[in-house]
Amino acid sequence: MDKSNKVGFISLGCPKALVDSEKIITWLRAEGYETVNSYDEAGVVIVNTCGFINTALEESLEAVAEALAENGRVIVTGCLGAKQDAAGKNLVKSVHPKVLAVSGPDSVQEVMDAVHKYLPKPHEPFIDLTPPVGLKLTPKHYAYLKISEGCGHKCTFCIIPELRGPLQSYPIGQVLDDAERLFQSGVKELMVISQDTGAYGLDIRYRTGFWGGRPVKSNVLGLVQQLGRLAQRYGAWVRLHYIYPYPHIDDLIPLMTDGFEGGVVPYLDIPFQHAHPDVLRRMKRPANGEKHLERIQQWRRICPDLTIRSSFIAGFPGETEEEFQYLLDFLKEAQLDRVGCFAYSPVEGAAANDLPGALPEEVREERRGRLMELQETVSYGRMQQKIGRTLRVIVDETVRGGAVARSTADAPEIDGVVYVQKPKGSRRKLSPGDFIDVEVLDADAHDLWGEWIPSAR
Ligand code: SF4
Asked: Which of 86, 115, 293, 381 has the smallest CB count inside 10 Å?
Protein backbone atom coordinates (compact mmCIF):
# COMPACT_ATOMS: atom_id res chain seq x y z
CA MET A 1 0.00 0.00 0.00
CA ASP A 2 1.39 3.41 -0.99
CA LYS A 3 1.38 5.53 2.16
CA SER A 4 3.75 8.21 0.85
CA ASN A 5 1.21 11.05 0.95
CA LYS A 6 -1.34 9.75 3.42
CA VAL A 7 -1.80 11.32 6.84
CA GLY A 8 -4.10 10.11 9.60
CA PHE A 9 -5.60 12.89 11.71
CA ILE A 10 -7.14 12.77 15.19
CA SER A 11 -8.66 16.02 16.44
CA LEU A 12 -9.50 16.33 20.15
CA GLY A 13 -10.55 19.27 22.31
CA CYS A 14 -12.51 22.50 22.01
CA PRO A 15 -13.60 24.58 18.97
CA LYS A 16 -10.29 26.49 19.12
CA ALA A 17 -8.41 23.22 18.70
CA LEU A 18 -10.84 22.32 15.90
CA VAL A 19 -9.89 25.50 14.05
CA ASP A 20 -6.18 24.58 14.41
CA SER A 21 -7.02 21.14 12.98
CA GLU A 22 -8.83 22.75 10.04
CA LYS A 23 -5.78 24.90 9.29
CA ILE A 24 -3.40 21.93 9.39
CA ILE A 25 -5.67 19.80 7.20
CA THR A 26 -6.02 22.69 4.75
CA TRP A 27 -2.24 22.96 4.48
CA LEU A 28 -1.83 19.21 4.12
CA ARG A 29 -4.35 19.14 1.30
CA ALA A 30 -2.84 22.23 -0.32
CA GLU A 31 0.50 20.46 -0.47
CA GLY A 32 -0.97 17.31 -1.98
CA TYR A 33 -1.26 15.14 1.12
CA GLU A 34 -4.36 13.03 1.57
CA THR A 35 -6.04 12.58 4.96
CA VAL A 36 -7.16 9.03 5.69
CA ASN A 37 -9.37 7.49 8.36
CA SER A 38 -7.47 4.33 9.16
CA TYR A 39 -4.19 3.75 10.93
CA ASP A 40 -3.22 1.11 8.35
CA GLU A 41 -3.32 3.47 5.40
CA ALA A 42 -1.48 6.38 7.05
CA GLY A 43 2.22 7.13 6.51
CA VAL A 44 2.11 9.26 9.63
CA VAL A 45 -0.61 10.12 12.19
CA ILE A 46 -1.12 13.61 13.63
CA VAL A 47 -2.87 13.85 17.02
CA ASN A 48 -4.16 17.34 17.92
CA THR A 49 -4.53 17.12 21.68
CA CYS A 50 -6.28 18.86 24.56
CA GLY A 51 -4.75 19.26 28.01
CA PHE A 52 -7.19 21.56 29.73
CA ILE A 53 -8.45 19.34 32.53
CA ASN A 54 -7.07 16.05 33.73
CA THR A 55 -9.68 13.90 31.98
CA ALA A 56 -8.90 15.64 28.64
CA LEU A 57 -5.20 15.15 29.29
CA GLU A 58 -5.68 11.45 29.94
CA GLU A 59 -7.88 11.07 26.86
CA SER A 60 -5.18 12.77 24.76
CA LEU A 61 -2.39 10.59 26.15
CA GLU A 62 -4.51 7.51 25.44
CA ALA A 63 -5.14 8.69 21.86
CA VAL A 64 -1.38 9.09 21.35
CA ALA A 65 -0.77 5.63 22.85
CA GLU A 66 -3.34 4.10 20.51
CA ALA A 67 -1.87 5.84 17.45
CA LEU A 68 1.61 4.62 18.43
CA ALA A 69 0.38 1.06 18.93
CA GLU A 70 -1.63 0.98 15.70
CA ASN A 71 0.63 2.97 13.39
CA GLY A 72 3.89 3.81 15.17
CA ARG A 73 4.65 7.11 13.39
CA VAL A 74 2.97 9.85 15.39
CA ILE A 75 3.22 13.65 15.45
CA VAL A 76 1.60 15.35 18.47
CA THR A 77 0.38 18.94 18.54
CA GLY A 78 -2.09 21.06 20.57
CA CYS A 79 -2.44 22.06 24.22
CA LEU A 80 -1.05 18.83 25.67
CA GLY A 81 2.07 19.30 23.54
CA ALA A 82 2.92 22.43 25.53
CA LYS A 83 2.70 20.74 28.94
CA GLN A 84 5.66 19.80 31.09
CA ASP A 85 5.97 17.01 33.64
CA ALA A 86 7.07 17.44 37.28
CA ALA A 87 10.73 17.36 36.18
CA GLY A 88 10.19 20.20 33.70
CA LYS A 89 10.44 17.90 30.66
CA ASN A 90 7.92 17.79 27.83
CA LEU A 91 5.10 15.61 29.18
CA VAL A 92 4.24 13.89 25.89
CA LYS A 93 7.88 13.01 25.25
CA SER A 94 8.29 11.70 28.80
CA VAL A 95 5.23 9.45 28.57
CA HIS A 96 5.64 8.49 24.91
CA PRO A 97 9.31 8.84 23.94
CA LYS A 98 8.61 7.26 20.52
CA VAL A 99 6.55 10.14 19.15
CA LEU A 100 8.28 11.77 16.17
CA ALA A 101 7.63 15.42 17.05
CA VAL A 102 5.70 17.48 19.58
CA SER A 103 4.42 21.05 19.30
CA GLY A 104 1.97 23.25 21.24
CA PRO A 105 -1.30 24.87 20.11
CA ASP A 106 -1.54 27.08 17.00
CA SER A 107 1.63 25.46 15.56
CA VAL A 108 0.64 24.82 11.96
CA GLN A 109 4.15 25.54 10.70
CA GLU A 110 5.84 23.22 13.23
CA VAL A 111 3.39 20.43 12.36
CA MET A 112 4.01 20.92 8.63
CA ASP A 113 7.80 20.91 9.23
CA ALA A 114 7.46 17.58 11.05
CA VAL A 115 5.27 16.16 8.27
CA HIS A 116 7.84 17.27 5.65
CA LYS A 117 10.60 15.59 7.67
CA TYR A 118 8.88 12.26 8.33
CA LEU A 119 6.68 12.00 5.23
CA PRO A 120 8.48 14.07 2.60
CA LYS A 121 6.34 16.29 0.44
CA PRO A 122 4.66 14.66 -2.54
CA HIS A 123 6.12 15.80 -5.85
CA GLU A 124 3.08 17.42 -7.41
CA PRO A 125 0.94 19.35 -4.99
CA PHE A 126 -2.72 19.43 -6.00
CA ILE A 127 -3.14 22.98 -4.84
CA ASP A 128 -6.26 23.36 -6.92
CA LEU A 129 -7.96 20.65 -4.86
CA THR A 130 -8.19 23.00 -1.92
CA PRO A 131 -11.20 25.33 -1.82
CA PRO A 132 -10.25 28.98 -1.21
CA VAL A 133 -11.98 28.87 2.18
CA GLY A 134 -9.76 26.03 3.39
CA LEU A 135 -11.08 22.73 4.63
CA LYS A 136 -13.67 22.68 7.37
CA LEU A 137 -14.45 19.99 9.90
CA THR A 138 -17.92 21.43 10.59
CA PRO A 139 -21.02 20.99 8.37
CA LYS A 140 -21.08 23.25 5.30
CA HIS A 141 -23.59 25.73 6.75
CA TYR A 142 -21.76 26.74 9.93
CA ALA A 143 -18.17 27.48 10.87
CA TYR A 144 -15.98 28.78 13.68
CA LEU A 145 -14.04 32.00 13.18
CA LYS A 146 -11.00 32.23 15.46
CA ILE A 147 -9.99 35.83 16.06
CA SER A 148 -7.01 35.50 18.39
CA GLU A 149 -4.70 33.08 20.11
CA GLY A 150 -3.74 32.94 23.80
CA CYS A 151 -5.14 34.82 26.77
CA GLY A 152 -4.07 37.85 28.81
CA HIS A 153 -5.86 36.84 32.04
CA LYS A 154 -4.60 34.83 34.95
CA CYS A 155 -7.68 32.99 36.24
CA THR A 156 -6.27 30.81 39.01
CA PHE A 157 -8.03 27.61 37.90
CA CYS A 158 -6.74 27.80 34.32
CA ILE A 159 -3.46 27.03 32.58
CA ILE A 160 -4.49 28.18 29.08
CA PRO A 161 -2.23 31.29 29.21
CA GLU A 162 0.74 29.00 29.86
CA LEU A 163 -0.29 26.56 27.17
CA ARG A 164 -1.31 29.05 24.50
CA GLY A 165 0.71 32.10 25.51
CA PRO A 166 -0.45 35.70 25.98
CA LEU A 167 -3.23 37.28 23.89
CA GLN A 168 -2.27 37.61 20.23
CA SER A 169 -5.07 39.19 18.18
CA TYR A 170 -5.14 38.32 14.50
CA PRO A 171 -5.11 41.36 12.16
CA ILE A 172 -8.64 42.62 11.65
CA GLY A 173 -8.33 42.65 7.85
CA GLN A 174 -7.35 38.98 7.89
CA VAL A 175 -10.21 38.05 10.25
CA LEU A 176 -12.78 39.84 8.06
CA ASP A 177 -11.31 38.28 4.90
CA ASP A 178 -11.65 34.84 6.50
CA ALA A 179 -15.24 35.64 7.50
CA GLU A 180 -16.16 36.79 4.00
CA ARG A 181 -14.59 33.71 2.41
CA LEU A 182 -16.61 31.51 4.75
CA PHE A 183 -19.85 33.33 3.90
CA GLN A 184 -19.03 33.11 0.19
CA SER A 185 -18.55 29.35 0.54
CA GLY A 186 -22.11 28.97 1.87
CA VAL A 187 -21.66 29.35 5.62
CA LYS A 188 -24.88 30.64 7.16
CA GLU A 189 -23.80 30.82 10.78
CA LEU A 190 -20.42 31.99 11.97
CA MET A 191 -19.35 31.42 15.55
CA VAL A 192 -16.73 33.88 16.74
CA ILE A 193 -14.31 32.14 19.11
CA SER A 194 -11.14 32.89 21.06
CA GLN A 195 -10.13 32.50 24.70
CA ASP A 196 -11.60 35.94 25.38
CA THR A 197 -13.52 37.54 22.53
CA GLY A 198 -14.09 40.79 24.45
CA ALA A 199 -10.33 41.39 24.69
CA TYR A 200 -9.86 41.41 20.93
CA GLY A 201 -7.23 44.02 19.98
CA LEU A 202 -6.03 44.79 23.52
CA ASP A 203 -2.53 43.43 22.82
CA ILE A 204 -2.18 45.62 19.71
CA ARG A 205 -3.64 48.66 21.50
CA TYR A 206 -6.77 48.53 19.38
CA ARG A 207 -4.81 49.92 16.46
CA THR A 208 -6.66 50.85 13.34
CA GLY A 209 -6.40 48.20 10.64
CA PHE A 210 -7.70 48.16 7.09
CA TRP A 211 -10.26 46.09 5.31
CA GLY A 212 -11.48 46.64 1.78
CA GLY A 213 -9.43 49.86 1.72
CA ARG A 214 -11.31 51.30 4.72
CA PRO A 215 -9.96 51.88 8.23
CA VAL A 216 -11.42 49.57 10.88
CA LYS A 217 -10.72 49.71 14.58
CA SER A 218 -9.24 46.49 16.00
CA ASN A 219 -11.57 46.12 18.95
CA VAL A 220 -14.50 43.84 19.62
CA LEU A 221 -17.08 46.52 18.79
CA GLY A 222 -15.44 47.36 15.43
CA LEU A 223 -15.09 43.69 14.62
CA VAL A 224 -18.67 42.73 15.52
CA GLN A 225 -20.10 45.72 13.64
CA GLN A 226 -18.27 44.66 10.48
CA LEU A 227 -19.16 40.99 10.94
CA GLY A 228 -22.82 41.96 11.41
CA ARG A 229 -22.79 43.91 8.14
CA LEU A 230 -21.13 41.03 6.31
CA ALA A 231 -23.65 38.57 7.75
CA GLN A 232 -26.52 40.80 6.60
CA ARG A 233 -25.04 40.97 3.11
CA TYR A 234 -24.83 37.17 2.87
CA GLY A 235 -28.09 36.45 4.73
CA ALA A 236 -26.31 34.78 7.63
CA TRP A 237 -25.92 34.83 11.44
CA VAL A 238 -22.98 35.73 13.63
CA ARG A 239 -22.82 34.32 17.17
CA LEU A 240 -20.41 35.45 19.90
CA HIS A 241 -18.68 32.99 22.22
CA TYR A 242 -16.37 33.21 25.25
CA ILE A 243 -16.89 36.78 26.31
CA TYR A 244 -15.20 37.81 29.55
CA PRO A 245 -17.63 40.09 31.46
CA TYR A 246 -16.01 43.49 30.83
CA PRO A 247 -18.09 46.70 31.07
CA HIS A 248 -17.50 47.44 27.37
CA ILE A 249 -19.52 44.34 26.44
CA ASP A 250 -22.55 46.59 27.07
CA ASP A 251 -21.77 48.26 23.72
CA LEU A 252 -22.41 44.99 21.87
CA ILE A 253 -25.99 44.60 23.09
CA PRO A 254 -27.54 47.28 20.82
CA LEU A 255 -26.06 45.39 17.83
CA MET A 256 -28.24 42.42 18.77
CA THR A 257 -31.58 44.17 19.04
CA ASP A 258 -32.51 43.67 15.38
CA GLY A 259 -32.34 39.91 15.83
CA PHE A 260 -31.93 38.15 12.53
CA GLU A 261 -32.03 41.35 10.48
CA GLY A 262 -28.94 42.78 12.21
CA GLY A 263 -26.73 39.81 11.44
CA VAL A 264 -25.58 39.42 15.08
CA VAL A 265 -27.85 37.09 16.99
CA PRO A 266 -28.99 38.09 20.51
CA TYR A 267 -26.80 35.55 22.24
CA LEU A 268 -23.91 35.96 24.65
CA ASP A 269 -21.75 33.09 25.84
CA ILE A 270 -20.26 34.68 28.92
CA PRO A 271 -18.65 32.39 31.50
CA PHE A 272 -19.27 34.06 34.88
CA GLN A 273 -17.72 31.09 36.77
CA HIS A 274 -19.16 32.26 40.13
CA ALA A 275 -21.14 35.09 41.70
CA HIS A 276 -19.71 35.53 45.18
CA PRO A 277 -17.16 38.37 45.28
CA ASP A 278 -14.71 36.45 47.52
CA VAL A 279 -14.73 33.37 45.31
CA LEU A 280 -14.33 35.53 42.20
CA ARG A 281 -11.39 37.24 43.89
CA ARG A 282 -9.75 33.88 44.60
CA MET A 283 -10.39 32.93 40.98
CA LYS A 284 -8.92 36.27 39.87
CA ARG A 285 -12.12 36.95 37.93
CA PRO A 286 -13.81 40.35 37.67
CA ALA A 287 -16.79 41.91 39.46
CA ASN A 288 -19.33 40.13 41.62
CA GLY A 289 -22.82 38.71 41.38
CA GLU A 290 -24.59 41.97 42.19
CA LYS A 291 -22.83 43.83 39.41
CA HIS A 292 -23.44 40.93 37.04
CA LEU A 293 -27.13 41.02 37.94
CA GLU A 294 -27.42 44.75 37.27
CA ARG A 295 -25.78 44.34 33.91
CA ILE A 296 -27.89 41.34 32.91
CA GLN A 297 -31.03 43.30 33.76
CA GLN A 298 -29.82 46.29 31.77
CA TRP A 299 -28.94 44.08 28.77
CA ARG A 300 -32.41 42.51 28.86
CA ARG A 301 -34.07 45.91 29.01
CA ILE A 302 -32.25 46.83 25.79
CA CYS A 303 -32.58 43.43 24.15
CA PRO A 304 -35.43 41.36 25.63
CA ASP A 305 -34.69 38.39 23.37
CA LEU A 306 -31.09 38.07 24.58
CA THR A 307 -30.06 34.49 25.38
CA ILE A 308 -27.33 34.24 27.98
CA ARG A 309 -25.25 31.09 28.22
CA SER A 310 -22.80 30.80 31.05
CA SER A 311 -20.65 28.31 32.88
CA PHE A 312 -19.81 27.97 36.56
CA ILE A 313 -17.44 26.10 38.83
CA ALA A 314 -18.88 24.46 41.95
CA GLY A 315 -16.68 23.55 44.89
CA PHE A 316 -13.79 25.92 44.15
CA PRO A 317 -11.09 25.71 46.89
CA GLY A 318 -12.33 27.41 50.04
CA GLU A 319 -15.93 27.78 48.80
CA THR A 320 -18.14 27.83 51.89
CA GLU A 321 -21.73 26.60 51.92
CA GLU A 322 -22.76 30.24 52.30
CA GLU A 323 -20.78 31.29 49.22
CA PHE A 324 -22.31 28.44 47.27
CA GLN A 325 -25.80 29.48 48.40
CA TYR A 326 -25.01 32.99 47.18
CA LEU A 327 -24.30 31.50 43.75
CA LEU A 328 -27.61 29.59 43.80
CA ASP A 329 -29.46 32.78 44.77
CA PHE A 330 -27.74 34.58 41.91
CA LEU A 331 -28.89 31.91 39.46
CA LYS A 332 -32.49 32.18 40.67
CA GLU A 333 -32.38 35.93 40.22
CA ALA A 334 -30.39 36.07 36.96
CA GLN A 335 -32.64 33.57 35.13
CA LEU A 336 -29.89 32.62 32.70
CA ASP A 337 -31.04 30.64 29.72
CA ARG A 338 -28.28 28.08 29.36
CA VAL A 339 -25.86 27.00 32.07
CA GLY A 340 -23.05 24.49 32.28
CA CYS A 341 -21.33 23.64 35.55
CA PHE A 342 -18.11 21.81 36.35
CA ALA A 343 -17.26 20.43 39.74
CA TYR A 344 -13.88 22.03 40.46
CA SER A 345 -11.15 19.76 39.17
CA PRO A 346 -7.54 20.59 40.02
CA VAL A 347 -5.67 21.13 36.76
CA GLU A 348 -1.98 20.33 37.09
CA GLY A 349 0.00 23.55 37.23
CA ALA A 350 -2.97 25.82 38.10
CA ALA A 351 -2.44 28.38 40.88
CA ALA A 352 -5.78 27.44 42.51
CA ASN A 353 -4.28 24.12 43.60
CA ASP A 354 -2.23 26.00 46.20
CA LEU A 355 -5.26 27.78 47.70
CA PRO A 356 -6.32 26.59 51.15
CA GLY A 357 -9.63 24.83 51.72
CA ALA A 358 -9.68 22.19 48.97
CA LEU A 359 -13.04 20.43 49.13
CA PRO A 360 -13.56 16.66 48.92
CA GLU A 361 -14.73 15.38 45.54
CA GLU A 362 -18.13 14.31 46.96
CA VAL A 363 -18.83 17.88 48.11
CA ARG A 364 -17.77 19.37 44.76
CA GLU A 365 -19.93 16.88 42.87
CA GLU A 366 -22.88 17.30 45.22
CA ARG A 367 -22.80 21.09 44.73
CA ARG A 368 -22.56 20.68 40.98
CA GLY A 369 -25.63 18.42 41.12
CA ARG A 370 -27.59 20.95 43.21
CA LEU A 371 -26.68 23.78 40.89
CA MET A 372 -27.74 21.86 37.79
CA GLU A 373 -30.98 20.78 39.44
CA LEU A 374 -31.85 24.40 40.21
CA GLN A 375 -30.86 25.53 36.72
CA GLU A 376 -33.02 22.82 35.16
CA THR A 377 -36.04 24.54 36.74
CA VAL A 378 -34.88 27.99 35.61
CA SER A 379 -34.19 26.81 32.05
CA TYR A 380 -37.54 25.03 31.92
CA GLY A 381 -39.33 28.24 32.92
CA ARG A 382 -37.44 30.27 30.31
CA MET A 383 -38.23 27.71 27.60
CA GLN A 384 -41.93 27.56 28.49
CA GLN A 385 -42.18 31.28 27.76
CA LYS A 386 -41.38 30.50 24.11
CA ILE A 387 -44.47 28.36 23.55
CA GLY A 388 -46.81 30.12 21.15
CA ARG A 389 -44.11 32.39 19.73
CA THR A 390 -42.86 32.33 16.15
CA LEU A 391 -39.09 31.97 15.96
CA ARG A 392 -36.63 32.14 13.10
CA VAL A 393 -34.50 28.96 13.04
CA ILE A 394 -31.66 27.57 10.94
CA VAL A 395 -32.03 24.03 9.63
CA ASP A 396 -29.20 21.65 10.61
CA GLU A 397 -30.61 18.43 9.29
CA THR A 398 -33.67 17.29 7.42
CA VAL A 399 -35.58 14.30 8.75
CA ARG A 400 -38.74 12.52 7.66
CA GLY A 401 -41.62 14.96 7.94
CA GLY A 402 -39.50 17.88 9.10
CA ALA A 403 -36.12 19.02 10.30
CA VAL A 404 -33.83 19.46 13.26
CA ALA A 405 -33.01 23.15 13.55
CA ARG A 406 -31.71 25.76 15.97
CA SER A 407 -33.04 29.15 17.04
CA THR A 408 -30.88 32.18 17.86
CA ALA A 409 -30.77 30.77 21.40
CA ASP A 410 -29.03 27.55 20.35
CA ALA A 411 -25.34 27.27 19.49
CA PRO A 412 -24.44 24.00 17.77
CA GLU A 413 -23.22 21.11 19.92
CA ILE A 414 -23.65 22.88 23.28
CA ASP A 415 -27.28 24.11 23.43
CA GLY A 416 -30.63 22.60 22.55
CA VAL A 417 -32.37 22.14 19.21
CA VAL A 418 -35.76 22.84 17.66
CA TYR A 419 -37.61 19.80 16.31
CA VAL A 420 -39.62 21.06 13.38
CA GLN A 421 -42.52 19.32 11.72
CA LYS A 422 -43.81 20.31 8.33
CA PRO A 423 -47.47 21.28 8.08
CA LYS A 424 -49.71 18.44 6.91
CA GLY A 425 -49.56 17.96 3.16
CA SER A 426 -46.54 20.24 2.66
CA ARG A 427 -44.22 19.06 -0.08
CA ARG A 428 -41.77 21.90 0.13
CA LYS A 429 -38.21 20.80 0.64
CA LEU A 430 -35.85 21.98 3.33
CA SER A 431 -32.05 21.86 3.29
CA PRO A 432 -29.35 22.40 5.91
CA GLY A 433 -28.63 26.11 6.22
CA ASP A 434 -32.19 27.21 5.34
CA PHE A 435 -33.71 29.84 7.61
CA ILE A 436 -37.37 29.18 8.34
CA ASP A 437 -40.02 30.42 10.76
CA VAL A 438 -41.48 28.03 13.27
CA GLU A 439 -44.40 28.30 15.66
CA VAL A 440 -43.33 26.83 18.99
CA LEU A 441 -45.78 24.21 20.27
CA ASP A 442 -43.92 22.59 23.14
CA ALA A 443 -40.73 22.85 25.19
CA ASP A 444 -38.70 21.08 27.83
CA ALA A 445 -35.69 22.50 29.67
CA HIS A 446 -33.43 22.17 26.60
CA ASP A 447 -35.31 21.71 23.34
CA LEU A 448 -38.31 23.10 21.51
CA TRP A 449 -40.89 21.46 19.26
CA GLY A 450 -42.76 23.41 16.62
CA GLU A 451 -44.38 23.62 13.23
CA TRP A 452 -42.91 25.25 10.17
CA ILE A 453 -44.90 28.23 8.88
CA PRO A 454 -43.93 28.32 5.20
CA SER A 455 -46.00 31.43 4.49
CA ALA A 456 -44.04 33.48 7.02
CA ARG A 457 -40.78 32.89 5.16
S1 SF4 B 1 -10.07 34.12 30.61
FE2 SF4 B 1 -9.34 32.92 32.38
S3 SF4 B 1 -10.36 30.92 32.09
FE4 SF4 B 1 -10.44 31.97 30.12
S5 SF4 B 1 -8.58 31.24 29.05
FE6 SF4 B 1 -8.07 33.17 30.05
S7 SF4 B 1 -7.16 32.54 32.00
FE8 SF4 B 1 -8.29 30.78 31.21
From this structure: 86
